[in-house]
Amino acid sequence: MIRKEPIVTGEIYHVCNRTVSGLEIFKQKRISDRFLATIYISNNIESRRPCRSFNDATDDILCQTTPGVVSPLIDILAIVLMPDHFHLLVRQLVDGGISRFVQRQCNSIGKYFNINNKRKGHVFMGPFKAIRLVSDAQAEHIFTYIHANPLDLAEPKWREGGVKDWGNGKKFLKNYELSSLGVYTEGDTKIHPLIPGLIDKEFATSYFKSKKDHLNAILGWASRNAKLSDHLVDNDYLE
Known about the structure:
By secondary structure, the protein is α+β, with helices and mostly antiparallel strands. It has helices at 29-42, 58-64, 97-116, 136-148, 166-174, 181-184, 213-223, and strands spanning 12-18, 74-82, 85-92, 129-132. Helix content is 33%, strand content 12%. Strands 2-3-1-4 form a 4-stranded antiparallel β-sheet. A hairpin with a 2-residue loop joins β2 (74-82) and β3. α1 runs antiparallel to α3 and α4 packs across α7 (213-223).
């Protein structure tokens, strides 16, 4: 399907894709491990395949991947895996880079999930959603939103300022390993060992000067009784 607005090289996008029928594929550690490891292979202009010994064990995945890529398609600025969808904040580096990357990821993980669960059919919905960031205000809010997303699992009303216990919410976020939050925040935040090597963290320094500022931004949003303004983001997209 042709997009109404083409994805522009050099621009930053919030990319999201969901599974069909709410399949909670990323609750399976082998799937989330595989997804993160496959990014190292997918994010390259030249098509590559994992070596034969690339399997389910995290240690083996780490051994079979390397942080560097010769010619990346995108810069990854933030990532969060939720049970039935993923969020990425990325900058397109080459024409068609985002589409090629997401297609590779979804096809690879979809096939892997189906094989391991004796299933057939699509795993991810399509086409993926890509929202272009057009202002500093939107960039700061989307960056904060992506890392706040796991609050859905602990404080479902956080978008409306309905967090009952920020101490519990903060603890949950800092223990949610399938997020790049730990790249940007305090050192006691847990993080999947594959994520730090994926992230270009220079982006956030223009918005958050200290390690506490990003968590404070999440708190500020989760504590107010309002959603993001329409001029900042498409609210229908943030689900």
